[in-house]
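Exercise 7.
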Amino acid sequence: METIRIILRDPVLRMVAGLMFLQGALTCSLAPSISVLAMRTFGLGNGGYAALMIVSTVVSVTSALYSGTGATTFSPSAISFVLAHALLLPANTMFGQLFAQARLAADTFVPKTSLCGRSWLRLASRFGRAG
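Solution. The predicted structure, written as C-alpha cells, is:
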C-alpha cells in the first residue's frame, strides 16, 4: 500500500497513472467497434478491411523503421533524431513515453519502492485496458 500512496502523492506518477488508465479505456472502447464500422458503416467488407489492416501495418512498420533508424542513418544528427521521434511517431509511442516518464519519476525514490511503483503503474494500465 505504500507504493499506492507514493503514486497518489507524486504529481508526475499520478498523472502518468491517470493517462495510462484513460488510454487503456479509450483503446478498449474503440478497438472492438473499428471492424464493425469498417464493414457495416463504410461497406468495406471482409476483404476491404483486411486490405486496410495490411496497409496500416506496412505504413506503421515503415514509419517506425524510418524514424527509428533511417532518419539517423541518412542524416545522423541530434536534430534529425528529435524531429523523427517528435513528428513521426508521437501517437504510436505514447504508451512507451508514459512508462519512460514514470520510470524517471519513480527513480527518485528508494530502488525497491521505485520497482513497486512501476508495477502498480503497469497494473493501472491493465485495468484501463480491461475497460
